[in-house]
Structures are given as structure tokens and as C-alpha cells.
Design brief:
This protein is mainly α. The relative contact order is 0.10. The longest helix is centred in the last third of the chain and has 32 residues. It is extended. It starts with 7 loop residues before the first helix and ends with a helix. The chain has two domains: about 80 residues; about 40 residues. Helix 1 runs antiparallel to helix 3 and helix 1 crosses helix 4. The protein is built from six helices and no strands.
Length: about 140
């Protein structure tokens, strides 16, 4: 069905993301259900909130494992994504602070475009504020 190791970086990455989500969700669940003032007692650590958080952790992690390694559709998607990412021509970044590298050239273009669009949106905002505050729309539309 699949070749050995096919799409492994993407599939393992999906499981790692699932682990992060599962840990965060279970810790939030436990903090939400933990009785107030019971943080130092031994029985509070093995309460319904702890068991529920542990079940949630295992369940979410199992779901991501199943999606990455057992579900045919999502496994095919992750394998295809890994194949497409191998075809990408990544910009050169070495030497790291050399202005002649592709990464720095692209960074300059992004910064200049962001500044340009920020100024443009600010000017449109100022124009609309002035026209609304002085009632110029009413004068223009109903003159």
C-alpha cells in the first residue's frame, strides 16, 4: 500500500501537533474541573478531573495518530503534502546576514509592501473619517 517511510516527516509532524493540542486541552480540562483549594491534597490529583483529563489526552492523541497513520484519506493528503514540499525551491539564506541572498531580497520586498499598504489604508481611513465627521457624504449624495 505505502512505501516504507513515505511521508513520515509530515505524518510525524501531524502527531506532534496533535500531542501539543492534546496536552493543552487536557491541562485546560483539568484546571477547569479541579476543586478550588484542593491543589495540595493527594486525592485532588486523582479526582474525576484528572481521570477525564488523562482520557482526553489519550483520546486526542489517538485521534491524531489514527488520522496520520491509519486513515487512508488523511494519510494520502499528508504524503502528497510531503511530496509537494520536496519540490519547493527554498530561498538561499547563507551566509546568514549577507544582503545578496534571496531571503533578504524577499524580506525587503515584503517590508516595503507592508509599509506601502499600511500608509494607503491609513490614508483611506483618514479620508473616510473626515468625510463622515463633516457630513460630506450627505452633501455629495443629497445636494
Amino acid at each position: 500500500m505505502y512505501k516504507a517511510g513515505q511521508g513520515m516527516p509530515s505524518r510525524i509532524g501531524a502527531v506532534v501537533v496533535g500531542l501539543i493540542i492534546a496536552v493543552y486541552a487536557s491541562m485546560s480540562w483539568y484546571a477547569w474541573l479541579r476543586p478550588v483549594g484542593a491543589a495540595t491534597r493527594f486525592d485532588a490529583y486523582f479526582s474525576v478531573g484528572f481521570i477525564g483529563a488523562f482520557v482526553l489526552l489519550i483520546g486526542v492523541l489517538g485521534l491524531f495518530y489514527w488520522l496520520a497513520f491509519r486513515s487512508r484519506g488523511s494519510a494520502d493528503y499528508l504524503i502528497d503534502m510531503d511530496d509537494e514540499l520536496r519540490k519547493v525551491v527554498w530561498p538561499s539564506v547563507m551566509p546568514l546576514f549577507d544582503a545578496k541572498t534571496e531571503a533578504w531580497g524577499s524580506t525587503y520586498v515584503v517590508i516595503v509592501c507592508a509599509i506601502f499598504f499600511t500608509i494607503f489604508i491609513w490614508l483611506v481611513d483618514v479620508f473616510l473619517q473626515l468625510t463622515i465627521s463633516y457630513g460630506l457624504f450627505q452633501k455629495l449624495l443629497f445636494a
